[in-house]
Every structure is written in C-alpha cells, then in structure tokens.
UniProtKB/TrEMBL annotation:
This is MarR family winged helix-turn-helix transcriptional regulator. The keyword DNA-binding applies. Residues 13-156 form the HTH marR-type domain. PROSITE patterns: HTH_MARR_1 (PS01117), HTH_MARR_2 (PS50995). It holds the Pfam family MarR_2. It comes from the Bacteria. Keywords: DNA-binding, Transcription, Transcription regulation. It comes from Mycobacterium deserti.
Length: 164
C-alpha cells in the first residue's frame, strides 16, 4: 500500500485518495452540474442567445419570476453583491433584466426579467426538457424520476434551492 504525508502530519492512503478523486459523489455532482450549465448555454446560444455565459445562467437560476434583490441573489449564490451587480449589469446590457423599485420597499431595488428575459426563460424550459430527455435515454425514466426526487430531497434537507 502506498502512502503519502498529509498536511496534517499523518499518513494518507494514496489509493483511497485516488479513488476519491476519480469517483466521489462531489466530483460526479460537480461534473454533472457543469455539463448541465455548458449544455444549456450551448443550446441557448443556438437559439439566438449568443452573448450568454455560464455565470449568467447561474445567476438567472436564483432570479425569481417576479424579481429578486441583488443581496438575496448574492446570498443564495454565496458570492459578493459586487459580483452579482456586475452580472446584472451585463444582463441589463443584453436586454434580459432590468432594475426596478421594489414594490414592497420603494427605497430598495429589485432585478426582474424584461420581455426578452422571460422569452429566454421560456427557451430555458424547453432546453431543460430536452436535456431531461437525453438523460432519460441514458438512465431510463424511473431512474431520472428518482434522481430528481433525491436531489430535491437533499436540497430541502440542506435548506437550499427554491421553497417547495
């Protein structure tokens, strides 16, 4: 058995580390999520949304249909308000979102979809259905349903994702 020193001063089973790197749940979840973002973005560009970047798609996942505050989006993404503001500005320049007064608090601003942004989200729903069909072709309808419900259950338990 091959071992290496760890930063904590102990010995680490190299085989175990290599298995972790190759087959951990974290790796599979990250790679699958990144594939979903890349595939969605490629298809959105093919439908005419040519300026979109993966960071835009990640932000739009956290933008509520009726609008959201930048602070809420930043908290949900665990990034700075400045990072979200920069992406919002880019999406404004592309015509997908606009900043408006928050109806609940006129002093605050919300980010909301424009007509073009709502059309993009409609296209995103179509893209998602097609990606689901591709995944279903790989694992079958039952496993896809199980995957969806399992991921939703994990998210609910961890307190992440949209409210039920």
């Amino acid at each position: 058995m091959s071992t290496i020193d760890s930063t904590a001063g102990g010995r680490v089973d190299e085989r175990r580390v290599r298995e972790f790197q190759a087959a951990s749940l974290q790796r599979h979840a990250i790679e699958f999520g990144e594939w979903m973002v890349r595939a969605s973005n490629e298809r959105a560009r093919a439908l005419g949304h040519r300026q979109l970047r993966p960071a835009h798609a990640r932000l739009m996942v956290f933008l509520g249909w009726d609008g959201s505050r930048i602070t809420d989006i930043a908290r949900a993404q665990d990034v700075s308000k400045n990072a979200v503001s920069q992406l919002v500005t880019e999406l404004e320049d592309l015509g997908y979102v606009e900043r408006a007064s928050d109806p609940a608090d006129g002093r605050a601003k919300i980010v909301r979809y424009t007509r073009e942004g709502r059309a993009l989200i409609a296209d995103a729903a179509t893209i998602a259905e097609r990606l689901d069909a591709e995944i279903e072709a790989i694992i079958g309808a039952r496993k896809l349903a199980d995957l969806r419900s399992t991921l939703a259950e994990i998210c609910r338990h961890l307190g992440i994702g949209p409210a039920p």
